[in-house]
Amino acid sequence: MKRKTFLRSAAAAASIAAVAALTACGGGGDTGAAAGDGGGGDTISIGFSQVGAESGWRAANTKSIQDTLTAENGFELSFSDAQQKQENQIQAIRSYIAQGMDVIAFSPVVETGWDAVLQEAKNAGIPVILTDRAVDTEDDSLYESFIGSDFVLEGERAGQWVAENFDGQGLKMVELQGTTGSAPAIDRKEGFAKAVEGTDIELIDSQTGDFTRAGGKQVMEGFLNSHDQIDLVFAHNDDMGLGAIEAIEAAGLTPGEDIKIVTIDAVKDGMQALADGKINYIVECNPMLGEDLAEVAKKVVAGEEVEKRIVVEDAEFTQEQAAEALPTREY
Ligand code: GYE
After folding, report:
1. Which helix (H) or strand (E) holds 131?
2. Which residues contact 67 (CB under 8 A, 6 or more apart)?
3. Which residues share a beta bridge with 328?
4. pTM of the entire predicted model
5. Is residue 49 part of a domain?
6. Residue 3: what pLDDT?
7. In a domain, 99, yes or no
8. In angstroms, what is the span from residue 41 Cα to ligand 1's centroid?
9. Measured from the CB, is residue 154 less than 6 Å from ligand 1?
10. Pick from 74, 143, 195, 240: most CB atoms within 10 A?
11. Mind listing the pLDDT tens digit for each residue in 48-103?
12. What digits encode the pLDDT tens for the residues 118-176?
């Protein structure tokens, strides 16, 4: 409930806030000139705690961050991979606090349980920037800004496409959820459910595949074993959809035809499967957050105002559009 309040206000703020239309990762352009404005052009030390390396999306996101927070751009980046474990992230953040970083940024693996460590950062006077995933906290002053996509909207867009294309056919659907307790799993589920409400599409099973290909495959194998009829898969990310494809093919069925698949992310492998007809529709989640993070970090260090919520723009793709987009696709 609290989280919903946050999202509502975030959505409202987003309409006022400049929507960050992410352009191609330029790199060059306005480099570190503004770095450490307050401190006479010093390098900004930034600790970044990444969720893990669970998906193609995460790999693209990590690359964007590492390619942008460079020495030429005025940063000294300490990067850590939490292997999808909250305790590892908390440990990394504590170590960044102990090292007296100028800025701490992280992508919270789950929504809850951050207040104590965020308070520690605040007490130490270190600003925190959230990227990609939201936290559920009653005290918004514990972080400076949250940069990332609107996951409810992503789920809604996927659900709308499904409703438009499949309502009236009595389809039985299964859902592969992302990491339990994570913002994208909670929000995509909610948005999708809202969009298919009132249709005759029936959700017959829903489990987490932890956003991984192996997880998606394993859960889909279980679904295929325990249900006589499955017509449609909604996977919270491409990787789980790709795992589901393997399970469906192993069961002697044709993905994209016998069982339709809709996913979120639009990373290379997902787009290839979409162009190949094995996935039916993908809503994009833009992973290129590095440029926005660099800009917000510089402003925060310079003591400038930053937007509390920066919403990243996402596209969506049919099979034909994927084939067209693939050759010039960056991630
Ligand atoms: O969709 C998934 C990744 O938080 C938006 O995490 C991110 C999600 C992304 O593992 O592939």
Report:
1. strand 128-131
2. 25, 27, 290
3. none
4. 0.88
5. yes
6. 34
7. yes
8. 34
9. no
10. 240
11. 999 999 999 999 999 999 999 999 999 999 999 999 999 999 999 999 999 999 99
12. 999 999 999 999 999 999 999 999 999 999 999 999 999 999 999 999 999 999 999 99
Q: 140 and 168: one domain?
A: no
Count up the domains in the chain and report the number: 2
Q: Which two tokens stand for residue 86?
A: 């909250």
Phi-psi region of 185 (alpha: psi -120 to 50; beta: other; left: phi over 0): alpha
182-208, pLDDT tens digit by residue?
999 999 999 999 999 999 999 999 999
Instruction: Give the distance (Å) from ligand 1 centre to CA of residue 36.
Output: 31
**Is there an atom of ligand 1 within 6 Å of 145 CB?**
no
Bridge-based pairing of strands 316-317 and 281-284 is antiparallel
Question: 38 alpha carbon to ligand 1 midpoint, in Å?
Answer: 35
CATH of the domain at 197: 3.40.50.2300
Q: Is residue 130 part of a domain?
A: yes
pLDDT at 41: 60
Find out whether the beta carbon of 267 lies less than 6 Å from any atom of ligand 1: no
Indicate whether 160 and 257 sit together in one domain.
yes
The rounded Å distance from CA 128 to ligand 1 centre is 20
d(CA 78, CA 173): 43
Q: Token pair of 290, please? A: 């590095």
Q: Mutate which of 265, 268, 284, 312 to test ligand 1's pocket (most atoms within 8 Å of Cβ)?
A: 265
Q: Is 133 in the pocket of ligand 1 (CB under 6 A)?
A: yes
Q: Is the CB of 58 under 6 A from ligand 1?
A: yes
Which residue out of 54, 57, 61 has the highest number of ligand 1 atoms within 8 Å of its CB and is therefore the one to mutate?
57
Give the domain range for residue 206.
151-285
- Verify whether ligand 1 is closer than 6 Å to residue 265 (CB atom): yes
**Ligand 1 atom nearest to CA at 239:** 11
- Classify 175 as helix, strand or coil: strand
The 8-class DSSP code of residue 198 comes to T
Query: Are both 294 and 201 inside the same structural domain?
Result: no
